[in-house]
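Minutes, methods subgroup
Present: GH (chair), OT, SY

1. OT presented the first of two proteins processed in the latest run. Sequence and structure tokens recorded below as shown on screen.
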Amino acid sequence: MKTRILSVIAILVLTATALEAQVNFGIVAGPNFQNMVGKDADGDKITNGMIIGFHAGVKATIPVATDFYFQTGLLFSQKGSKNNLFLYGKKAASEDYYNNTRISYLELPLHLLYSPELGNGRLLLGFGPYVAYGITGKQTYTYGSREEIKIQFQNEIEMDEYTPGDEVYFRGFDAGADIFAGYEFAFGLYAQLNAQLGLLNIITDITEWDYDPNLKNTGFGVSVGYNF
């Protein structure tokens, strides 16, 4: 019995060691250029303005076939938009009267990576879904003075719970699709260009309101990272 137990333990240790040897860990960071797009209650296109945020985190790359990898990780990522004061869905036309929406997400990418050798390094081509959840956020209003309202995350609220101008609500959960391309140098440093399209409406549903606007995160970014 002891021999069997020791054999099982040895197999588990060897398996864990092999998996650990195959997984490549790294760090990544860079700027985000984000917007929110969609349609208002009348079905007209929403044209917000872009804001600059950042993303940073860790990632893990697991080989699945020759030159193909599964890549995941955990990122802190800022998203949002800039628009005219109190005219949500209209691109800001003035630097004196506008408000910024900025939401910080914890994001989990689930990517398929194709990475063949190219020169002394490797080409990076990838795509796949992501899921994210908002952990904090605020809207900043600028109209001579400056005011901030903390964003609250709820899927649905009652109409009598909402006070326009005093409260800001968004759905916490977001999901979408990523695509990226870049290059990894032989010593582990890499750079890539990322594009992202949100697929879920992030506007909180206010019951008893006869309107159904739709707003989704979208944007692109530049990532610089290092694989250990």
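2. SY then presented the second protein from the same run.
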Amino acid sequence: MPHKGSGHRRRLKERFLKNGLHGFHDYEVIELLLSLNTPRKDCKLSAKLLLERFKTFQGVLEAPGHRLCEVQGVGPANSLGLKLIKAVADRYLEAKIISKDVVQNSKDLIEYLNHLIRHKPNEVFAAIFLDAKNRVLTSQILFEGTLTSSCVYPREVIISALQHNAAAIIFAHNHPSGDINPSRSDINITRELLFALKYVGIIVHEHMIIGSEGTYSFANQGIISKFNKEFKEQNV
């Protein structure tokens, strides 16, 4: 028997098949995802409740499974489906940068980092490990901090870089506030990491800050080259 909202669900599917997600509200995207595991129940209310609880579309996808299940109409199957969608998107975007030279063409890298860390509620610090030709080997979130800071330990960064046989690294972290301007600690840790990695023969190409206001590039602002010059002068 048709359920309440079955016509609405059919129209959503038809819209998606015709134009993708163009013109969809966030709650409609979530509703469509929920419908994959809830074939005989209207999912609009649950979708709206998820957005109300977790504030944004990204917040819904980032939410822990047990918290998703706390929302009316969202069970383990729905939770699994939402977490799976996020994981699939992560893998897809990571696959787009693997084995590519992201130093010369950073568009896919920025897209990946925006998806990976931009909307996280806490500050996280990530590394993109590169080979000698600047092709991406892998990426890894190295540290997770509070809403305002992240503790970054150069020794652990060096260990991870050596484990991946990296010749170079790109760093990135998010600012949950949205403001992409670097703090004094951001600048200091960039300098500290560049110097530490130079001593083991690993190049730091870039450090990016990701936020809702855009992306800040330490390389484009001349900070990386400034530190490289300083390192060279100290080791003449």
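Chair's summary of item 2: The longest strand covers residues 136-144.
Next meeting: continue with the remaining queue.
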